[in-house]
Amino acid sequence: MIKKNEADDAVKVEGVGKYFGSQPDLVKALDHVSVNIKRNEFFTLLGPSGCGKTTLLRLIAGFESPSFGQILLDDKDITHLPPYKRSVNTVFQNYALFPHLTVAQNISFGLEMLNKPKDEIEQTVNEMLALVHMEELKDRRTDQISGGQQQRVALARALAPKPDVLLLDEPLSALDYKLRRGMQIELKRLQLETGITFIFVTHDQEEALTMSDRIAVMSNGHILQVGSPDEIYYKPTKRFVADFIGESNFVEANISSLDKKKKQATIQFEGSKKKFTVGMPANKFADKTAMVFIRPEHTQLKASSQGAAMTGRLTDRIFFGTDTNYHLMLDNGETFIVRSQNTIHSNFNPAIGDRLGIFLEEDALQILED
Ligand SMILES: Nc1ncnc2c1ncn2[C@@H]1O[C@H](COP(=O)(O)OP(=O)(O)OP(=O)(O)O)[C@@H](O)[C@H]1O
Ligand SMILES: [Mg+2]
After folding, report:
1. SS3 162
2. What is the pTM of this model?
3. Which residue of 27, 90, 218 sits with most ligand 1 atoms within 8 Å of its CB, as the best mutation to test the pocket?
């Protein structure tokens, strides 16, 4: 369990690569990935299918060895240690429970393999049953319980040996929406109560944002950005991250001046006199125009276009209950989305085809790396 006064990092992944096969069919499942996962952290690997999430988990668990690089657990090199010698447990996507065993037997199985004393096993199983609220079903076979209940047994089984690190590979993907939301809260509670470091894999951005202390966004065998949910959402450093998480607008703007020292550009959108100063990544200094990233909810729509950053024609409005998305066609033919919170007393009710002004604050604008 948690050891005090040791390094803050539970897991360090240092320059790790995992290549499968050989040329010309070489697959670089992971390529020079480095990341530190802190003790007691709820850390999420987020990315599209095939980006290397499961491969990274399997390397940390020890089911695979890396092609190069090192993995440290508690500052000890475990790169070539077999799985059973690592204080790491995994919850697999399909749970992999023993169907002919009861709930309690599934939870005690791993402890028996570790030759724990009988009374200790019994005590731990009872603790785990209470932790996942499964006391009443402890004698039921696991092929006779629901999907959500199986999920809880799989978690209890993986938590029972009290590993330092728990790896969870898309553990909620088989559950329906409501059960999934319930389990998200449950998982977070379990992590807080046990103090175990969780490394959680998902391709669902909402799940990642709501559950994690920090998120690593992955693409194509690389980690593109690591940060807290709000850093990832508000300050994406790369276009892929901004696109993958939440809704985003990308609008082309003219660069009227550039301050290389301050790494700032002054920009203007087509058809508007308004100027904005925005941070500029150094590798974009030679560009004549900039792709500007703007979240739909950081913009405002008004009937008048006077003083607006841009103007557009309303092409669609989509009602979400709490909010409405207004789709506009800009003068350059691109689509721009404004998301606006609905209020009871609003008298702003534009019609399709209306010409509207898009207003925004300077800090709503960002120029990202590709
Ligand atoms: N044993 C293997 N041999 C060859 N290629 C593999 C092997 N395992 C994984 N890959 C490839 O490595 C890449 C990363 O796979 P991985 O399973 O890590 O993706 P993932 O992010 O977990 O995707 P998903 O969300 O679909 O589970 C993929 O292109 C995959 O086809
Ligand atoms: Mg996977």
Report:
1. coil
2. 0.88
3. 27
